[in-house]
Amino acid sequence: MGETESPGRVADAEFGALTDTFPAKFREKSKKKALVYERGLVLIARSGKTRRFPFGDVRVQQEIVEKRLYGFRASTAYRFVLTGPDGHKKVLTNFGYRRIDELGRTIQGHVVRAQLPGVLAGLQRGEQIEFGKLCLSKDGIGTRRRLLAWDEIGAVKFEEGYVVVAPREGRLNIAAAVKAVPNVFVLLAVVEQVMDARGR
After folding, report:
1. Phi, psi at residue 12, to the nearest 5°?
2. At the top level of its lineage, which domain of life is listed (predicted)?
3. Which domain holds residue 138?
4. What is the pLDDT of residues 106-164, one digit of tens each?
5. How many angstroms separate the most distant Cα atoms in the chain?
6. Mapping DSSP to helix (H, G, I), strand (E, B) and coil, where does residue 154 land?
7. What CA dihedral angle connects 60, 65, 66 and 67, to 10 degrees?
8. 103 and 141 co-located in one domain
9. Are 99 and 191 within one domain?
10. In the Cβ-directed half-sphere of 195, how many Cα atoms lie within 13 Å?
11. End-to-end CA distance of the chain
12. What are the pLDDT digits (tens) for 67-121?
């Protein structure tokens, strides 16, 4: 979506009601902030320019890295890459916004609610839905080299920075780095619904 001069509003003609505001981290009077609406995200730069991301048509990639010292968590680095329908990217990190962890969770939750019905409908029509290196189809979850049928899948989980698709039997998993899987929580929500429908 293109940049505009429009300020943040309590309601937005395209995105609906404002639900939360996340200010810039370091400057109290900075114009920079993230505005979360019902159907989209508006990022306002320090210059006042805005960038709009509709939840129904945005790709979100995340990377969360914990640094440990003597076995204890010392810090956590958050990085969320948003790609709009026009291909424009914005990166959100600890250094840009306060409550970055909450902002990331909020965005991911809205994206799941906006995109899950369409992905499920696509699977029912027999489409193959790509999530980076992973793809879903009516047959199962796979990559270009390997497919696990739905009945063969034991679990899909996060493990040390990867999305791991583990089979019911055997040790050969399918895995992809979380940061390389766009809308990873949409993928997990689809898997949960499909597996529940099949009785696990």
Report:
1. -125, 135
2. Bacteria
3. 128-197
4. 999 999 999 999 999 999 999 999 999 999 999 999 998 889 999 999 999 999 899 99
5. 57
6. strand
7. -150
8. no
9. no
10. 22
11. 40
12. 777 776 677 999 999 999 999 999 999 989 999 999 999 999 999 999 999 999 9
Residues 8-36: pLDDT tens digits? 567 789 999 999 999 988 766 678 999 99
In the block, which residue shows the tokens 């990085």?
79
Phi-psi region of 170 (alpha: psi -120 to 50; beta: other; left: phi over 0): left
3-class secondary-structure state, position 96: coil
Q: Is residue 2 in some structural domain?
A: no
CA-CA distance, 78 to 80, in Å (whole number)?
7
DSSP 122: H
Distance of alpha carbon 37 from the chain centroid: 16
Q: Do 113 and 135 lie in a common domain?
A: no
Q: What is the pLDDT of residue 75?
A: 79
Instruction: Tell me how crowded residue 74 is: count the other CB atoms within 10 A of its CB.
Output: 9
Token readout for 91 is 């990166």
CB environment 21-39: b (16+ within 10 A), e (fewer)? ebbbeeeeeebbbbbbbee
Residue type at 4 in one-letter notation: T
What is the structure's pLDDT at 88? Answer: 94
Pair (32, 104) in one structural domain: yes
Q: Give me 2's structure tokens.
A: 């293109």
